[in-house]
Design goal:
binds iron/sulfur cluster; single chain; 18 helices; about 475 residues
Length: about 475
């Protein structure tokens, strides 16, 4: 059985050797994005056109997002930044790949997919493998979940026994994670885990065992959750939209807009005094005066509306927020207020942000690490200062050169990016950037460069980094 696609991504802590492991231990990974792709089907131009065409908005992206960090995501318009943010949140279903959320474990959340897959462990393993060999898309996802749940035990010569042991461990884990769990439940879980470890030791010599074991993770695979389960998780995974004008319902007051999520997630009884007090507290945290409570969105400026959008997300006490061009529509003076507010709230609430923007100065100010995207691919990923001090990808170099600087004179030579971003429906072969790259070689036209770690924590997808 060969399910090789799930190898550790080259630019995640999982795969970057001892340094990566040490980093992973020091900082918890909150979200692991693995091989994530999002393709949108394109309408056929004529009835005679053969085959399907797709906009390849994100193509095989792998990333780790650490708890408490701000990961900036930059790139030109149309490179797939917003799509990536929404696909990570499962607002768009992924075409390929998966996202593991580690804010909750399979034991304390007890998703339906875990029990279902483990119940039919042996049969599912055979069925999924067969479907994968035939090129099944959704089945590949189930295969990932199976590997996450079973690890190397998928290679056991007695899958029925392995499945029974894993199911017993999972059920014991769920009981041990319950609020009223006592010492007996904890002991039962330890016992069940011991039995599974014994089986693992027996299977350890099977070729491919280590690769499968790498896939084990007790986080939640968002794509495998039911709609209801995903809804219950929404309060932990929030988004702030780009447009403060269209993202608020014009017929609702600020109190209703912020309160809607609180009622939906059963945090408060509708219109209760406690809820009103809580909303006022959140509004004050976000710099909104309490007397705004019964006003409508049209009575606010752009900056105030964006604060309402932030308050709406924060009221649910999320752990992870996608800020999708959250300040792009605002005046520069208001931008700085909102960015400072986001930074302050992050510190106070230990929030994790994916900060999407095409404004490099803004991203530099707020981000701990920056990921540069080009045509649906990751071009470069590094710590903020590392990236600005020593950009290695020719695209990043071009982006940084394009930022106006007060010290630059008109006669200074600037290597600006030339040409247009190619169509994501028909991306170029080889390196996605080769049509605009001044350092392009024959090799770049033929094959796509892998993402490699060129210095600790600095990942670049280029055959000839600068
Ligand atoms: S791989 Fe080649 S074409 Fe692509 S960015 Fe690097 S030098 Fe340019």
């Amino acid at each position: 059985m060969v399910l090789s696609e799930n190898k550790a991504p080259a630019y995640t802590a999982e795969a970057s050797g001892a340094a990566g492991e040490a980093q992973e231990q020091a900082r918890n990974i909150l979200l692991r994005v693995h091989g994530l792709s999002k393709f949108f089907p394109v309408k056929k131009r004529s009835v005679f056109e053969k085959g399907s065409r797709f906009v390849r908005a994100n193509d095989h992206i792998s990333l780790d997002i650490y708890e408490g960090e701000t990961l900036g995501l930059v790139g030109e318009s149309g490179c797939g930044k917003s799509t990536l943010g929404r696909t990570i949140l499962n607002l768009y279903p992924a075409s390929e790949g998966y996202v593991i959320y580690r804010g909750r474990s399979i034991y304390d959340f007890a998703p339906r997919y875990a029990e279902r897959l483990l119940n039919n462990f042996a049969a599912e393993a055979v069925r999924v493998q067969k479907a994968r060999e035939e090129g099944g898309g959704k089945e590949a996802l189930l295969a990932c979940a199976l590997r996450q749940l079973g690890g190397g035990l998928l290679l056991s010569d007695n899958p029925a026994e392995a499945g029974a042991a894993l199911l017993a461990e999972y059920r014991a884990g769920v009981k041990a994670s319950a609020k009223d769990a006592g010492a007996a439940e904890q002991a039962a879980f330890r016992e069940a885990s011991r039995a599974v470890e014994e089986l693992r030791k027996k299977t350890a010599s099977v070729p491919g065992f280590a690769e499968y074991e790498d896939c084990r993770d007790d986080g939640l695979m968002l794509e495998c959750l039911t709609g209801e389960e995903m809804r219950s998780l929404r309060k932990e995974l929030q988004i702030i939209f780009q447009d403060p004008y269209s993202s608020l319902d014009a017929r609702m007051t600020i109190s209703q807009i912020i309160g809607e999520g609180l009622v939906t997630h059963h945090m408060f009884a509708k219109n209760s005094g406690e809820m009103q007090e809580y909303i006022i507290r959140v509004m004050e945290e976000c710099g909104l005066a309490p007397y705004f409570l019964h006003r409508y969105p049209h009575q606010f400026s752009g900056g105030q509306r964006q604060r309402v959008g932030i308050a709406r997300s924060l009221a649910l006490r999320p752990r992870f927020i996608v800020c999708d061009e959250a300040v792009s529509a605002l005046d520069v003076s208001i931008q700085s207020q909102i960015i400072n507010l986001l930074a302050e709230l992050k510190k106070k609430e230990n929030l994790t942000y994916l900060f999407i923007s095409h404004n490099l100065s803004v991203v530099r100010y707020i981000s701990d690490r920056i990921c540069v995207m080009y045509l649906g691919h990751v071009a470069e990923l590094a710590g903020t200062e590392q990236l600005f001090a020593h950009p290695m990808h020719p695209y990043t170099c071009g982006l940084l050169e394009a930022v106006p600087s007060p010290g630059r004179r008109p006669e200074d030579t600037v290597n600006l990016l030339e040409g247009d971003i190619p169509s994501p429906v028909n991306p170029p072969a080889g390196c996605a950037f080769h049509t605009r790259c001044r350092y392009c070689t024959e090799e770049c036209r033929k094959s796509a460069p892998p993402v490699a770690e060129t210095e600790p924590g600095h990942f670049v997808a280029c055959f000839h980094p600068r």
